[in-house]
Amino acid sequence: MTERLHTLDCARRLAAATRARHEYRLLWPEACEQCKGAGGAWLKDLVTGRPAFEECTRCLAYSLCPRCASEESITGRTAPQCTECRWNLKTPGEPAAPACTCHPEASHG
């Protein structure tokens, strides 16, 4: 089996993403495993074509903060926010793994 080497740029992006993910997990060890602290996902509404937020069924649907896991700390339904860590719908979750540019079929996830 031949080992594929990544370009220097790809290796640097992977290292930076790995550091960012590690730092996020250190800051927010209780972040939801399903949504990675994002609270859900922004999807395109098939009827209107506009972005629509689909809340995570493991945390936000049960009023648990996606980032700090505080119970009953989420206020508001249309614009939820955590009273403990200040998470809201605009707060990014755990950084995603970068896409490999030197081997498009490879995944770093």
Please tell me the overall pLDDT: 87
In this structure, how is the largest beta sheet organized? 2 strands, antiparallel
Q: Could you list the spans in which at least 5 consecutive residues all have pLDDT below 50?
A: none
Question: Percent of residues in helical segments?
Answer: 10-25%
- Categorize the overall geometry: flat
Structural class: alpha+beta
Biggest sheet: strand arrangement: 1-2
Distance from first to last alpha carbon:
22 Å
Percentage of residues in DSSP E strands = 5-15%
Order of helices and strands: HEEEE
Give the count of helical stretches.
Answer: 1
Quaternary class: single chain
| Alpha-carbon Rg, integer | 17 Å
- Total strand count, please? 4
Descriptive terms for the model:
single chain, two-stranded antiparallel sheet, 18% helix, flat
Concise overview:
The chain is α+β, with helices and mostly antiparallel strands and 109 residues long. It has one helix spanning 8-27; strands spanning 40-44, 51-55, 74-75, 81-82.
Description of the structure:
With 109 residues, the chain is of the alpha+beta class. The protein is 18% helix and 13% strand. It has one helix and four strands. It has one helix at residues 8-27, and strands spanning 40-44, 51-55, 74-75, 81-82. It has a two-stranded antiparallel ribbon. It has a two-stranded antiparallel sheet with strand order 3-4. A hairpin with a 5-residue loop joins strand 3 and strand 4 (81-82). It is flat and about 50 Å long. The mean pLDDT is 87.
